[in-house]
Amino acid sequence: MMNTSGPAGLPRRRFLGTAMAGGVGAWGLTSLGAPGTARAARAARALEDPVAELRSKFFTGPVTERVDLDTLDPARRPDSSQLGTIGHFQFVDRYPWMTPDNLLPFAVAAGIKWVRTGFRHEDWGWSAGKPGAMLKSWVDADLKAGIKPLFTMSNRVNLGTPKEVSGWVDMVRAAIGEWGENVGAFMLDNEPNNSSEWKTRYGGEYWGGPWLDVYTRIAEQCCEQVKAEFPNAFLVNGIQVESQAMGQLKRSSPGIDALCMHHYTYKHGLPPEYTPRTGDANFRDFVTSHAEFERVMSDYLRQGRMLLGRPGLQIWMTEIGLPSLSLREFPSDTLEPMSETQQAKTIARMLVLGLLTATKTFLYTLADQGHNAARDGDTFGVVTDDLRPKQGFFVLGRISALTGGRATPDPEFLAIATRLEGALPGYVKRVGTALVKEELRAERLVTADGRALVAVWSTAPPRESFAPRRATFAVNKTLGKRPVLVDPMTGRSRFLVTRPGPGGAERFDLDVRDYPQFILAEK
What does the record give under GO molecular function (predicted)? Predict the structure, then answer.
């Protein structure tokens, strides 16, 4: 049954006007085809009705003839799909709305293939040899819907004990034993530098110290034991700060398959294209060494591959996002108070950056943890704590639909933007050691079904209200016949007029906004 009591006793709304019935098994897409049972029919309706209603709000205009929304079904998407989200389902006792009945329709509607799922050592019934009810309910529901879990494994309860290594290994073994070797992927803790358990037990502070030495040793031993037993198990590093991860890899050789990266810039008054990096004495927390996000990510991955001698090493951005409500104060010429509009615009830009640079990108987070503006962490979700989809949810779903869940950047694509007469001056501001300068960006992606998708946006800080930059673009690759321009904030689309340019280039005019608009070619 749907939870009808909201936080702090507030009444909870019905999801999209639909009361969702049925237990956890009702969400299993693979069970929907079971013939001749009334339960299967009820299960199909329970999931398909809210999913269809959400998807019906994705697009209007000619793009509806070019995008098949049925391909959003996670079960139809390969494991190589790039888009994921964080579930926080391990906290369902604290946030009672985070149940499969309530939230799985949103993940399915948006075509999310991967969900980062908290897996604490204490979430498993070791004496009974079975997962706890909460963990089992979510993982079972995800797998039946075709969604893969990225288990964020926390063995902090065993730090400083003989199980500080074997506890992690036991968790991998237990999950594979319960759900099979192809169950998903395993992340070795999450942000240990932000963990009081790691720092209290071993000493050190955010930037490093004894805890990092211990993590380095434990991670290497865990990987060695897991890979000996399960060679195909996919392991993701848990350290999200580049300098710390490089220090770890210089002192050890863990058998990880992917580096971890978290991308947040709003605390520092930086647009998403600017990358917080460590090591500058001008900042206590983060600095920006240069603005080209793609170069930072490429350098991080290149170093990791060289240190480990693994050319197939990947990089997973296991957290990106922005709260939609915050009491944090920012300079008015850098960032405004947070809003759902700003959140959605930032998500759109970060998703494009993820498609350009990372193997996987996980949105932090699927659902709000509350609605207290004094706690930034409460409103990172794209679904509110009373189950209302925010604008950011629809941006996520639309970009997922346009790309097919994965897209490859085209390094040969060139775009030159010329600002037209009367255009507003560009945004320029010095933030610490960084000169934040507005650019008009255009990037070409090749979607999962082989179509060209060009993203165009301004790198000025996202605003609640933004004056578009009128510009003419010349690109070196054709946009095809009757390209369609799609606005991910509204879902509206129209045909884009193009014309021949000099030297075989193709030209078009566009009102550039502070979030990516997409130009989709014909199939």
Answer: hydrolase activity, hydrolyzing O-glycosyl compounds
